[in-house]
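Hi team,

As requested, here is the filled-out complex form for the guanine run. I kept the field names the same as last time so the parser does not choke. Let me know if anything looks off before we queue the next batch.

— J.
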Amino acid sequence: MTQILDGRTLARTCNKAVKVKVESLARPPGLAVVMVGNDPASAVYVKRKGVVADRLGFVHRQIDLPADTSQAKVEEVVRSLNDDDAIDGILVQLPLPKGLDSAAVVDCVSPDKDVDGLTIRSIGYLAQGRQLLAPCTPWGVMKLLALADVNLSGKSAVVIGRSNMVGRPMAMLLEQANCTVTVCHSRTTNLEEVVRRSDVVVAAIGQPKVVQGSWIKPGALVIDVGINRLDDGSLCGDVDTEAASVNAAAITPVPGGVGPMTIAMLMENTYKASCARQGVSAG
Ligand code: GUN
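And here is what came back:
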């Protein structure tokens, strides 16, 4: 039987734990989400983040800026949130509209409030295995992998995708869990061969069903970060889930796998950042 790594249930458990801990803080954690433009997918994600933040008793602020906002203005908004004492965590929803320099905007976020874990400082700490606040999606994937109750040490892992938000930090976290990690990307010529020999597969390349079921090694753990909308409006991941389930020991569904965990880890990071700023232990 293939284990379904149910992100919805795990996220609910993580969120409940944070909610209980928030009640004993002197003031609620504050999360600000900056959304520039009106990309429909981003709008859905941002709304979900707000709903969960409200449910956990956080102070939640969403700053909507028009798509033609200047670089200087976006940076000024982020800096004003850095100076806002009620805000512990800042997330700039990516991608930003064309013409804006995302890296420069992200680097305006105060490292203490970098609940997305994407600033140079956060990634530098992560690279050294001293992470403060880890990027939400890779950190959520590590928690999903823990559900499978498999010792990752010595396992071969493939990360498909090399984005700053997912692929790169994901490879670092798996390496820190003592996996031997291969990173594949759009120019990799032997993806099938690498997947076939991998005990852990994390697909985060944003291409529907690029990982075929027959490639999955018997007993592998398969994590699908992709969420792609097909022409008929349906959603699918980067893995052919049904076919991959034949060989996989455990697999994430799409939707209901990684997505809810990304949000749960954002809440956990915001709670941790708030504890640090309030001078109390995160417990
Ligand atoms: N866009 C899609 N996922 C994310 C995320 O986790 N963080 C940010 N900042 N933007 C995203």
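Two things worth flagging: Residues 45, 91-94, 116, 136-137, 165, 262 surround guanine (CB under 6 Å). The CA atoms of residues 83 and 204 lie 34 Å apart.

Thanks,
J.
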